[in-house]
Amino acid sequence: MNWYLFWYLCIGSIALVTLSRAGRVFGAGLSVWRGRIAELLVRNILIGIGLPLFAEWLVVFMLIITPPDELSAPGGGFMLVMAVIIAGAGVVGAVRETRAWIAWIAYYRGAALLSDKRYAESLTLYERTLHRHPKLAGAWVGKAVTLYRMGRGIEALVAIERALVLGPKLAQAWVWKARILTALRGDIEALMALNRALELAPHTAVVWAQQGDTLARLGRYAEALGACQRAQDKKLARDHSPASHGLALATMATALNGLGRSAEALDAAERAIALNPYPVRSRLAQAVAQERLGRPEEALAAAEQGLAVAERYLLDEPSMIAHAEVWSAKAALLRQLGRAGEADTAEARSQALYAAIRGEVGAAR
User: Fold this and answer.
1) Residue 363: helix, strand or coil by DSSP?
2) What is d(CA 177, CA 21) in angstroms, rounded to the nearest whole number?
3) CB neighbours of residue 110 within 10 Å
4) DSSP H helical segments within the chain, as ranges?
5) Which residue(s) pair with 204 in the sheet?
6) Predicted structure pTM score
7) Which of 129, 150, 186, 334 fits a disulfide with 181 by CB distance 3.0 to 4.6 angstroms?
8) What is the CB-side half-sphere exposure of residue 218 using CA atoms within 13 A?
9) For residue 34, what pLDDT is reported?
């Protein structure tokens, strides 16, 4: 084998490793077209692992067919060192991508269990994964989300902090930290976390929607409205999902009510209900807007519908944090109907759940 062939093989190996990085972009694009399974196969297995390993074995093959006299000739040692470096780069790249693949599998399996409201199974999956791979930031995020849904707020905060130590640039982790802090009544800290998420992912709708929700909770309605309008911008590059759109509309209705713009609030609430008739907050915003517009009969009907939705939600959803939010909204709806005694009971139930989430009392449902 001569030097020309050696350099051609080295250049080819380096090009393959470079292509494995470019494959991330291709895999992400393909996932939009064909779904997450395509991303798994193309990005993580074929490109992320296969190409670096192919580059490594290409160099190994080169060394095998190189005559010993060429390796002992002047410059042969340098050729050997270069080959080892390139082979090592292939191994390191493959190991890194394999770990990322494991994290991806664990996160989305856990997410599937979460969507089915199988919280105990999801937590077991994440804990088993983290026992084997304690440095997988995505698995820590999944564990934090599961604990948050189960009402174990302090443990969820610890888990999400661990995820951020391992992956400080994970915008999704900052968003979930904000949600957990909101449940723990740390709205200011939640807003700081969301500001960090926006620095990392300024074109992600869910971050803007969550920021609007937090600002509305703080009574900063004008800023909340601006954030929600940004969340609905069709030009956002990623994550313009029905969930983020629905959250933005519901929060927008709340903010508009706070600003005294009842007609616009009613329109936003009705659009949110059309998108997803289940959330109670949209029904509450609708009832408040109708009352302020001088339509008491419609306001009462909307409040009654909201109560029916709340009751159904409490039966269907085992998440403690969801129960706390729904009981709070239910209290507001009952006050809207003039049922002060029941409203106080509902509010007390909500406060007890939030206290349990903060670890102040036993987490009895």
Assistant:
1) coil
2) 30
3) 26
4) 3-34, 36-39, 51-65, 68-72, 76-115, 119-132, 137-149, 153-166, 171-183, 187-200, 205-217, 221-231, 242-258, 262-275, 280-292, 296-316, 320-336, 340-357
5) 238
6) 0.68
7) 186
8) 19
9) 43
Instruction: Look up tokens 């998440």; give the residue.
Output: 319
Cα separation of 236 and 238, whole Å? 6
Those residues with Cβ within 8 angstroms of residue 259's Cβ, 6 or more apart along the chain or in another chain: 221, 222, 225
Do 252 and 228 form a contact (C-beta atoms < 8 A)?
yes
Q: What is the DSSP letter of 150?
A: T
Report the C-alpha gap between 131 and 102 in whole angstroms: 13
In total, the chain counts a number of residues equal to 365
Query: What confidence tens digit (pLDDT) does each residue in 311-335 have?
Result: 777 777 677 777 887 888 888 888 8
**Pick from 105, 126, 130: which is nearest to 44 by CA?**
105
Section 292-296 average pLDDT:
86
Q: What is the pLDDT of residues 185-233, one digit of tens each?
A: 777 888 888 889 888 888 888 888 889 888 988 889 999 999 988 888 7
DSSP H helical ranges for 66-75: 68-72
Determine the Cα–Cα distance for residues 28 and 34; give it in Å rounded to an integer.
10
Position 160 scores a pLDDT of: 93
Q: CA 105, CA 101: separation in Å to the nearest integer?
A: 6
Structure tokens at 5: 């062939």
Pairwise CA distance, residues 276 & 269, whole Å? 10
CA distances from 327 to 53, 93, 119 (A): 55, 50, 21
pLDDT higher than threshold 50 for residue 35: no
pLDDT digits (tens, 9 = 90+) for 342-353: 889 988 988 888
d(Cα 72, Cα 76) in Å, to the nearest integer?
6
What tokens appear for 343 in the block?
């409203």
User: Which residues, in sequence order, are CB contacts of 108 under 8 Å at separation 6+?
Assistant: 36
